[in-house]
Design goal:
Number of helices: 17
Mean pLDDT: 93
Number of strands: 11
Radius of gyration: 24 Å
Largest sheet: 11 strands, mixed
Order of helices and strands: HHHHHHHHEEEEEHEHEHEEEEHHHHHH
Structural class: alpha+beta
Amino acid sequence: MRQTYQQLQQAVCLDTEIATLCTWFSSFTDKRAANRSFSLPDVLLSAYAMFALKYPSLLAFETQTQQEAHNLHTLFGIKTLCTDAQMRNVLDKIDPDTLQPFWAKTYNRLAKLGVLKTYKWLDKFLIISVDGVEHFHSTKVHCPHCLVKTHRDGVTAYTHSMLCAVLVHPQQAAVFVVGTEPIVCQDGDTKNDCERNADKRLLKAMGLSYAGQRLLYVNDALYATAPHIKQVRDNKWDFIIGVKPDGHKALFAKWEARRKTGRLLQTHVERDGKGVLHRFEFFNGTALNEASPDCKVNFIHYQQVDSKGKTTTFSWVTSLIISKKNVIQIMQAGRSRWKIENETFNTLKNQGYGFDHNYGHGQQYLATTLAYLMLMAFTTDQLIQWCSQPFQVLWREAKTKAKLWYTFRALFMVKPLTSFRHLYQETAYLYGVEIT
């Protein structure tokens, strides 16, 4: 008998996820000399384990107890441990593109588990929020790929950034990374890379990975340009993009003109159960700007007035035809863009992953490869958070994930374990709860 989505999700466990990852890493081509003392899968799994267990630094990960070394072998399948210097040296030569298939693999996994069905919005769209984030910063260490910026005080900063594409839902806390693209100086280019150029590369790559999917891109005002919109539409996807008066004067002038005359402008006012007032003004079928008359968009101006009278204002352009029936849902989708900040980047910075810590830079790919491995550990955590009932019980008891990660790592350091299931059982015993 075919299993239900609920049964498939309940069968998800960290032991199986790590085993699958180990098998995938074992398929990578190792170009090092044959007399190497540790395997490429061991190095990749070691770095992944560091982020999965929320170690604060490579040095902290390297100074292992006897129990930690045992548990890295039994839980992560690492046969030979390497030093932090050896890990940096090997990972520096791993092109981050080697890790890119993980995101499509995750997406397919979410589809098979029925998670994507839960994440559909307006009955058909999967919302993808895209934004850039810096993950390495130094005033001393740099490489040919670094972005370079000299500040007014004369200090030169060297940074690495990336674009992340994340599956979000207005009513769901879990988010899943489905695409990444480094924002770094490209080979042979003397100019700094930028978020818009990285966006072009990301859209091209995602167009290949997710062809035929009903994706709804949500972006901030940086992306409210005709080239970006054209590329999204060429992928046969839809969009909701923030716009601002300073950047789109002609568009806002049209809105103001329609407000004054009352012609060709639709309105909708609604108060929800929490006493929040929602005011909408919208119209369909207008040019994004004067320079791109063929780039047609639909416009929403929205004001939220909370129970204390505080007013917050947003504006978007979208490819979706706006009506009084769907304007609330379009607004909610547009505002879900911030989940990439709140549930992704802020989580990575504040809940033990150490996203704002410089784990290493290298001379080729180290900074980006480490960032990708961290995102992979985060994405697996999100899957476990969504599917695993034992994890959910422990999370409720711990109150915060930061405390739960601390408990996991403490047990990992002092007690020999046979599996992640064993780790969960030991944690449940300490918390005085039962897990099935």
